[in-house]
From TrEMBL:
Descriptive protein name: Protein kinase domain-containing protein
Gene3D superfamilies assigned: Phosphorylase Kinase, domain 1, Transferase(Phosphotransferase) domain 1
Record's keyword annotation contains Hydrolase: no
Region (Disordered): 314-337
GO biological process: signal transduction
Any Pfam family matching the protein: PK_Tyr_Ser-Thr
Origin species: Liquidambar formosana (Formosan gum)
Family: Belongs to the protein kinase superfamily.
Domain annotation Protein kinase: ranges: 26-290
GO cellular-component term (any): cytoplasm
GO MF entries: ATP binding; protein serine/threonine kinase activity
UniProt keywords, alphabetically: ATP-binding, Kinase, Nucleotide-binding, Serine/threonine-protein kinase, Transferase
Organism lineage string: Eukaryota, Viridiplantae, Streptophyta, Embryophyta, Tracheophyta
InterPro entries named in the record: Kinase-like_dom_sf, Prot_kinase_dom, Protein_kinase_ATP_BS, Ser-Thr/Tyr_kinase_cat_dom, Ser/Thr_kinase_AS, Ser_Thr_protein_kinase
Length: 353
């Protein structure tokens, strides 16, 4: 299995040796999630808490071959794309099971978080903050030529403090190529872009052209859901929602949204894929909107003290006001010093502007 150049062959690509998981050090715990193609467990790898995705191998030789190709593609993409809003990849192995190991996020899926919140809605600033996390993850993928194709709340995971969203599950992700024809049955219908399935004569597995703007459409549906905390196309089945979106150009209502926010949502789900913004543009639009609803607090200029060469007694208020607060031990609390304003910056989700 090994090779002289330090790479290990995993089906159709070479996996760098540092990403190869040793199954002997992998301990599988309780199941925390399940999808059509895999089950996810909480576990440990070399004393590190991790999430373990075990991919179903399939039953027939044809199905096994398809699952191995999909597994290989997902591992290859995870191993070369890192971003703070993408679930951190730790490693993978193909034998005795097809396993992908990532960081363990304890906040649960965005789907579960929203369901638990209903009938209440997210605070608008929180919703836009989550949307920015998602858009930044997608911008990173697209900059590497990767289309996710299955962006939906089930594939978005929250950190334990519920302050950050990370994108997971690259099972349907594909590299974008202008000459490549891609399968049309991918994704989940309610969030899928219409161009993925809008050709009525397209049979299962048949190929058609599309580009990374399919992810912009899915993002619009997720953003609408973040704002309203309702299932998009409520009252319709997945297939009914897909039919309405593709053949009747139906979209969830944007009537109750503020004008600037409505513009972001509706531009992302336009019928013409080429008219949709890219994720760099989406991020800028979200930041501009966020600044209108949560402007940075005004920074009060520091007072200018003139030195008169006076010596103040230790008890003087003038002395204490210029000195850092100390606790009984004589130490200066770092938290108070760190919390003081340090300049004209507006920070949001660790990004400063």
């Amino acid at each position: 299995m090994g090779s002289g150049n330090g790479f290990y062959s995993v089906h159709e690509f070479n996996l760098e040796a540092k990403w190869l998981i040793d199954p002997k050090h992998l301990f599988v715990g309780p199941k925390i999630g399940e999808g059509a193609h895999a089950k996810v467990y909480e576990g440990k790898y070399r004393n590190q808490n991790v999430a373990i995705k075990m991919v179903n191998r399939g039953d027939t030789p044809e199905d096994i071959a398809k699952k191995e190709v999909r597994f290989a593609r997902e591992v290859e993409m995870l191993s070369r794309v890192q971003h703070k809003n993408l679930v951190k990849f730790i490693g993978a192995c193909k034998e005795p099971f097809m396993v992908i190991v990532t960081e363990l996020l304890l906040g649960g899926t965005l789907r579960r978080y929203l369901l638990n919140l209903r009938p209440r809605c997210l605070d608008t600033c929180v919703a836009i903050g989550f949307a920015l996390d998602i858009a930044r993850a997608m911008e990173c993928l697209h900059s590497h030529g990767i289309i996710h194709r299955d962006l939906k709340p089930e594939n978005l995971i929250l950190t334990a403090d519920h302050k950050t969203v990370k994108l997971a599950d690259f099972g349907l992700a594909r590299e974008e190529s202008l000459t490549e024809m891609m399968t049309a049955e991918t994704g989940t219908y309610r969030w899928m872009a219409p161009e993925l399935y809008s050709t009525v004569t397209l049979r299962h597995g048949e190929k058609k052209h599309y580009n990374n703007k399919v992810d912009a459409y899915s993002f619009a549906i997720v953003l609408w859901e973040l704002i309203h905390n309702k299932l998009p196309f409520e009252g319709m089945s997945n297939l009914q929602a897909a039919y309405a979106a593709a053949f009747k150009n139906v979209r969830p209502s944007a009537e109750n949204l503020p004008e600037d926010l409505a513009l972001i949502v509706t531009s992302c789900w336009r019928e013409d894929p080429n008219a949709r913004p890219n994720f760099s543009q989406i991020i800028q639009m979200l930041l501009r909107y966020l600044s209108t609803i949560s402007p940075p607090e005004p920074v009060i200029p520091p007072r200018v003290f003139t030195c008169e060469n006076r010596v103040l007694p230790p008890e003087s208020p003038g002395t204490s006001s210029l000195m850092p607060v100390r606790d009984d031990s004589g130490e200066t609390p770092t938290s108070e010093m760190e919390n003081k304003p340090r300049g004209f910056f507006f920070c949001f989700n660790n990004q400063c502007y």
